[in-house]
Amino acid sequence: MAFCPIFCCLNVSDRKGRGKKQPPWRVFSLKELHSATNNFNYDNKLGEGGFGSVYWGQLWDGSQIAVKRLKVWSNKADMEFAVEVEILARVRHKNLLSLRGYCAEGQERLIVYDYMPNLSLLSHLHGQHSTESLLDWNRRMNIAIGSAEGIVYLHVQATPHIIHRDVKASNVLLDSDFQARVADFGFAKLIPDGATHVTTRVKGTLGYLAPEYAMLGKANESCDVYSFGILLLELASGKKPLEKLSSSVKRAINDWALPLACEKKFSELADPRLNGDYVEEELKRVILVALICAQNQPEKRPTMVEVVELLKGESKEKVLQLENNELFKNPLAVGNTNDEISAAEGSSDFISAENESKHEMEENAEP
Ligand SMILES: Nc1ncnc2c1ncn2[C@@H]1O[C@H](COP(=O)(O)OP(=O)(O)OP(=O)(O)O)[C@@H](O)[C@H]1O
Ligand SMILES: *[C@@H]1O[C@H](CO)[C@@H](O)[C@H](O)[C@H]1NC(C)=O
Ligand SMILES: *[C@@H]1O[C@H](CO)[C@@H](O)[C@H](O)[C@H]1NC(C)=O
Ligand SMILES: CC(=O)N[C@H]1CO[C@H](CO)[C@@H](O)[C@@H]1O
Ligand SMILES: [Mg+2]
């Protein structure tokens, strides 16, 4: 089989895997995945993202899986797929949704995960579970810290280091205990350059994109920090990253939250579904951390290690420094910029990424 040599090298260097009887991941046959998902039956479909459809399935041993079936593939990238997926599959952390394996047969490329019974953060904040209000403040705090720890692992502990590139509410899945599992890390890299895909992705995740990433398409750790800041604001407020104010005007969540935070109106930022039931100090901390993450200048954002420390609030001194950050000092400067993005010319649902980028560039250029 074509992937054999890669396997062998990786297994030799995988020291953690040594001594264990069962490898943490394996290669699946297409046949097995067909039977697990009832031939990729429409009824098994969990959803669809930028890379293809995701199906629920059950293996012969009864375990539940989610299978992502990639829709675009180029022959050229064949080997890269296997190498990349094998690297990602070796990543293990309590807050990461690891790969269980993959399948690469003919033109088919599939990735197999554990099924997460409580679905995504997105489904609880804005989707099918949103009316059930299952996310009390304690759960939200755990999800915030847990997902941050998952990203820290990717940024500093994984070898090689991994930049997620697509941190957002649909990529934070929840296990049976509502613990956060960050999914789809490092995945954007797998898609060949120039695929129509890239456009879809940029549009689809617009509200989370760091301005420098939207403009140049180059991601580093600071881009994940920005996206994580947006995610935190979403988690605390229950609002979407981009809120439609009218048919032509959309407002970014950080532009809405910053002036309120400067005026210390934290209770106005809390998700109404919490019914005032939250720890004030924690809410304030989450909002402040979120906003220093989701600021335009990448070099001013904290690292994810600092984010975890701040969210946990263990160092009173650092929390105080956070409160005194220059970002929260000058509400006037904030109000000056156009905090409402106009999409007036087009009637399309999304602001074009290029136009958005230009807009943000202008904002940056202002003193
Ligand atoms: N292991 C899983 N268990 C349960 N639901 C899952 C699992 N993996 C994905 N999903 C859900 O399936 C849907 C489609 O996921 P997919 O990752 O393809 O798209 P996405 O997260 O919306 O966007 P992106 O392609 O950028 O990741 C999402 O709602 C996601 O939360
Ligand atoms: C990421 O790149 C930006 C420039 O686009 C830079 O300012 C920032 O410091 C970089 N972040 C890290 C963690 O290297
Ligand atoms: C940017 O917006 C203008 C209108 O302001 C529109 O005509 C143009 O097509 C947009 N560009 C893209 C790439 O969508
Ligand atoms: C809302 C929801 O789907 N809750 C589920 C979370 O996961 C546990 C364990 O599978 C289920 O029992 C809950 O119903
Ligand atoms: Mg996803």
UniProtKB/TrEMBL annotation:
Family per similarity comment: Belongs to the protein kinase superfamily.
Keyword Kinase: yes
GO cellular component: plasma membrane
GO molecular function, one term: protein kinase activity
Region described as Disordered: 343-367
Name this polypeptide is given: Pti1-like kinase
Name of a matching Pfam family: PK_Tyr_Ser-Thr
Enzyme Commission no: 2.7.10.2
Residue stretches of biased makeup (Basic and acidic residues): 355-367
InterPro entries in the record: Kinase-like_dom_sf (IPR011009), Prot_kinase_dom (IPR000719), Protein_kinase_ATP_BS (IPR017441), Ser-Thr/Tyr_kinase_cat_dom (IPR001245), Ser/Thr_kinase_AS (IPR008271)
Keywords for the protein's UniProt record, in alphabetical order: ATP-binding, Kinase, Nucleotide-binding, Serine/threonine-protein kinase, Transferase, Tyrosine-protein kinase
Binding-site list for ATP: K68
Domain Protein kinase: 40-320
Broad EC category: transferase
Organism: Medicago truncatula
Source taxon at top rank: Eukaryota
